Amino acid sequence: MAILLDNDTRVLCQGMTGWAGTHHVTQMMEYGTKVVGGVRPGKGGRSHLNLPVFDRVAEARDATGANASIIFVPPASAAAAMIEAIEAEVPLVVAVTERVPVLDMVRVREALAGSRTRLVGANSQGVLAPGVAKLGVMATGSERPGGVGIVSRSASLTSEVVAQVTAAGLGQSTTVGVGGDPIHGLSMRDCVELFLADPGTDGLILIGEIGGAQEHEVADYVAETRPSKPIVALIVGAHAPAERRMGHAGALALSGAADVAAKVAALEKAGVRVAPSANLVGRVMAEALARVS
Length: 293
Hints:
Elements: E1 10-14, H1 19-31, E2 34-39, E3 47-48, E4 51-54, H2 57-64, E5 68-71, H3 75-87, E6 92-95, H4 102-112, E7 118-120, E8 126-129, E9 133-136, E10 145-152, H5 155-167, E11 172-177, H6 188-197, E12 203-209, H7 214-225, E13 231-236, H8 260-270, E14 273-274, H9 281-292
Parallel strand pairs: 1-2, 1-5, 2-4, 5-6, 6-7, 10-11, 10-12, 12-13, 13-14
Antiparallel strand pairs: 3-4, 8-9, 8-11
Helix pairs in contact: 3-4, 5-9, 7-8
């Protein structure tokens, strides 16, 4: 099984007619994802990639039965696109756009409160259920169906860890990129809860970095629930200078709690196995699963 995606996932693309939407939706369709239409205000009634284009998300959902949307909209308009999808009650929304203004994302979080929508992102590489559906911009080719769930703040490290997990003969149930911006939808803890409840996921990999408190939230949750499924973590940024943003907008350590050492200590105290290096994540996961088999 997988989380968030299944064989009945029907996808809209907001911003499908632009270059990025066209390119990545084509790849998603080639992977087997069921894309059913696009949304671009002012272009309703046309077709693109042999799919219908609509002016509004609600109209598109009613016409196609879509239950997911992926957003390729520039930063200045991305929050409005997310809010429109939330108001249209689309169950799953993936926002690829990065560096959406922080105050705009505050408005998005307010719209999410009490809604029926799960938002992944912004600044997410997306969600991938190997052999089922690809909803995002991640590279494919090394992924295989299996029992390891991956939740990550880093797209490039996700690709590396996916390759390691596949090489170890384990495969992945789902990979989820929560996004590298400071304010986003689904959190790492949210994903951990979903993976722990998924009977098709045997173990979890957490890919974190400096900045924010998400890894601490996971550590608190794991310490409280003591799950039987093994969890392996990789936290990067050990040599990043303090108070300097590194790559992602959310990768900024302003206090001791946000640095690598504090996060590693909290996770290890909770019972999470922390890989000492990025090239060892797959091996550590294989060893952890072997211990519980």
